[in-house]
Amino acid sequence: MEPADRDQEPANRPAEPQPSQRRFGALSRRGALLGMSAVAGVAAVDVGGFAYAGGWLGFSGPATLTPPRFADRFEQVFGHHDGFRRNHAKGLSATGSFASNGAGAAVSRATVFRAGNVPLIGRFSLGGGLPDQSDKPDTVRGFGLVFQVPNGQQWRTAMVNFPVFTDRTPEGFYERLLASKPVPATGKPDPQKMAAFLERHPETVAALKVIKQTPPSVGFADSAFHGLNAFYFTNSAGATVPVRWSAVAQQAAAPASSGKDYLFDDLIRAVTQRPLTWKLILTIGEPGDPTSDATKPWPQSRKSIDAGTITIDAVQTEQAGNARDINFDPTVLPDGIAMSDDPLLAARSAVYARSFTRRAEEPKSPSEVNVGQVRS
């Protein structure tokens, strides 16, 4: 654990491994769980970019893709902002619960799918490394959740409002991040660099077409959020199936307001008026459905299960002790859910930790989004 946050964490919280202690071979479950807090099992590591996956991290030369290089790339594109996440820097903490209806137990033995309620800690965010960026309707929106299961296990997920991911591999994501860096003269990416990237990555071109077919909703409250990656679910009988999941909004949003932080302001007002709910929908894959490529959607005809209701009943300005310091690492999974062969899954953990290592040692600045400044 890094000293900047040590006074905010329980004394018996396991230490976050230092960079010199990390080895990037197969990502072990123990490694994924390092950093868990003794209180509610909350880990203080960061949501950022991508790292080890299927051997793409190595030590063969100066151009090798590593967690520090990924974190560096975010800083090169968005600038350096002390104390903030390198990606999804602008955000708002949330709390609530998940009411399982028991239907998910048909495909997973995970305790979270037994009928009953479990508490949630969440975070709404905007993609990118600018903590003070102006809200825009087409900026990717994030919804991270930690399901706090009674038996001490956890299920964490980092969802976005895109139906598919833009990149198939960590290398592709890294290349696109570089190609999308704004040119000072225009404030937009260099069209030649982006065109060259897209020519090399037809899978991204196809994914962008799918994304454009699903225009963004008015706000956070009426957004659907998607886990994107495939996972393997195993039930109590030992049967295993591939699954993707989504959180489908159960309320319509009011007309969007105006202002730099309008998306977050509208979310704060909405939660003040009533709890917000999303149905957790599990989509069951069939033989031949891609589990290793998050750019490809599964057919809409696939069977789905309504597993229960996610409720957010409060939001909070980010500060020590809430979602500011949580790692929404999608590889932290309870028994009954396992990683698939998607290279992006294992890829996300190590740079999350690298991002935390950096920001935890930096001075903290106030969050751009302040719940107390929004009038209902």
UniProtKB/TrEMBL annotation:
So where's the catalytic machinery, residue-wise? H88
Enzyme class, top EC level, equals oxidoreductase
Q: Does the keyword Oxidoreductase apply?
A: yes
Q: Superkingdom of this entry's organism?
A: Bacteria
Which biological process annotations from GO are given for this protein?
A: hydrogen peroxide catabolic process; response to hydrogen peroxide
Q: Would you name any one GO CC term?
A: cytoplasm
* Region annotation Disordered: where it falls in the sequence: 1-23, 357-376
Q: Which residues bind heme?
A: Y352
Q: Name one GO molecular function term.
A: metal ion binding
Provide the function of this protein.
Has an organic peroxide-dependent peroxidase activity.
Under what name is this protein listed?
Catalase-related peroxidase
Q: Source species, please?
A: Mycobacterium ahvazicum
